[in-house]
Design goal:
257 residues; alpha/beta; six-stranded parallel β-sheet; 12 strands
Length: 257
């Protein structure tokens, strides 16, 4: 029997111009929904709320993939709590019925400043005015590429960590799949099909890029480093498994050369 098609909805995407946000916008269109991007480029400030009411008009659900690239605890906590609080309040005023928030596998066990910000965001969502679903994902295939791009000189410092990397498009599809469904609280986390060490991923990526960077794995100090190296970033009790492997991603990288 043919699968039942979900009723088309107007769905706001907070952070819709970022890596994962662009994919969410695309997948919403594929599914027949109308995406509405919430980003500075559209005159929206998630922290102050400027531009939110107009953009949220007529939206039935929100997918929140907003982000701030910082490892500083104060900055991360401040951004994620303020942005989430402002977004949820504006969503409630607009009659939005569900927020679907992207989070990260392992944040309960790794006390990085960024992860503490994501913990705080989850708390705001859980206690907010909207029905909610939270999807935790492992690190994207693009993560080692970001580390290499930020390296100065021939050496690339890479954390000694064990990961189960997932394709960003698989995460986007999982987020969009929740649209139109009853709010579920914590969804099963999503991860890729294989466990890999970050330094090995970075070395394979260097080869695929045709680069000459030298990867230097470094264990972060204290409990954070021990947890990351020991598998704290892996899903524990089952997960949704993405279909794309890191090798699939490397072939895409090679195709860009």
């Amino acid at each position: 029997m043919p699968s039942e098609r979900m009723e088309a909805m107007r769905v706001a995407v907070a952070g819709g111009t970022g890596l994962i946000g662009k994919l969410v916008v695309r997948e919403l269109g594929v599914a027949g929904h109308e995406p509405v991007v919430l980003a500075r480029a559209q005159g929206v400030d998630l922290v102050s709320g400027e531009g939110l009411p107009a953009r949220l008009a007529g939206c039935e659900e929100i997918i929140d993939v907003s982000n701030k690239n910082t490892l500083r605890r104060k900055q991360a906590v401040e951004f994620f709590t303020r942005a989430a609080s402002t977004l949820l309040a504006a969503g409630a005023d607009a009659g939005v019925r569900q927020v679907i928030t992207l989070s990260i596998v392992g944040i309960d066990d790794v006390a990085l400043g960024y992860y503490l910000g994501k913990r705080a965001q989850e708390e705001v969502v859980r206690n907010g005015p909207l029905s909610w679903s939270i999807l935790r994902a492992t690190q994207f295939h693009q993560f080692p590429e970001q580390l290499l791009d930020s390296a100065v000189g021939p050496f690339a410092i890479v954390p000694d960590s064990l990961s189960q990397p997932v394709a960003a498009v698989d995460v986007a599809r999982a987020l969009v799949a929740q649209v139109g469904r009853p709010a579920a609280g914590y969804l099963p986390p999503i991860a890729g099909p294989e466990r890999l060490r970050m330094a090995d991923m970075a070395r394979r990526l260097v080869k695929a890029q045709g680069s000459h960077k030298i990867v230097v794995p470094v264990r972060l100090p204290g409990g954070i480093g021990k947890a990351m190296a020991g598998g704290a970033l892996l899903p524990r009790d089952g997960c949704t498994q993405g279909s794309q492997t890191f090798a699939d991603y490397l072939r895409q990288v090679e195709g860009r050369r």
